[in-house]
Amino acid sequence: MVGRSEPSRTSAATNQEHVIVEQDPLLEASDATLASRAADGDVRSFEVLARRHGPLMRVYAAKLLGSDVESDDVVQEAFLTGWRRIAELESPKYVRGWLMRIVTNKAIDRLRVRRHHVDVTELDPPARSAASPERVVEARMQLDAVWLALDKLPTDQRRCWLLRETAGYTYQEIADTLQIPVSTVRGLLARARSFVLHEMEAWR
């Protein structure tokens, strides 16, 4: 969409100072209508979508990342990406799942970067004084093993595993988010769990 103005990071997600008119018809509009209007360059429609789905995206990102601060950044990045690519959305009615896939990818990217830099004390509660250095090292190695196992999974299996095991999504919610049948979700999760358990066998 050449020539479209880009909403600011704040206005695209949660501009608390923006006054919402109670009778604004956009507040009652369907996701499909809002997404279609946003694809045509309507910033206000995208802001309504952001306000409508932002809370769920933040809760999910926070659970995945273990950080409210990082979750806000990831959601903001997801909204900016969503705004730039909204015209690529083939089915406007699935905009919620589309946004969730974007924030999932952003969060996974953040986790991959973090795992190479973050100290173990930032991932786990402070160890008791009685905890031995050997146990701390073991915990770090086990965490690394989980991430290595997840990296080996096909994309859909990894996303299903993260949505289910990290965010607590139901099978139906995962199906809606990834736009696949529930039966496929069950199969992907079963294979993902089996693989992760096999990879983590040495840690039992």
Let me know the number of strands. 0
Distance between the termini: 52 Å
Helical coverage, percent range: 55-70%
| Major sheet details | none
Number of helices: 10
Following the backbone from N to C, one meets helices and strands in this order, namely HHHHHHHHHH
What gyration radius follows from the Cα positions, in whole Å?
20 Å
* Beta-strand fraction estimate: under 5%
Query: Which regions contain 5 or more consecutive residues with pLDDT less than 50?
Result: 16-21, 118-131
Shape: elongated
Query: Overall mean pLDDT score?
Result: 76
Which structural category do the helix and sheet elements fall into? Answer: mainly alpha
What does this structure look like?
The chain has 204 residues and is an all-alpha fold. α3 packs across α5. 27% of the residues are buried.
Question: What attributes characterize this protein structure?
Answer:
mainly alpha
Brief overview, please?
The chain has 204 residues and is mainly α.
Q: SSE layout and pairings?
A:
Layout: H1 9-13, H2 31-39, H3 43-65, H4 68-85, H5 95-115, H6 120-123, H7 133-152, H8 155-166, H9 171-178, H10 182-199
Helix pairs in contact: 2-3, 3-4, 3-5, 4-5, 7-10, 8-10, 9-10
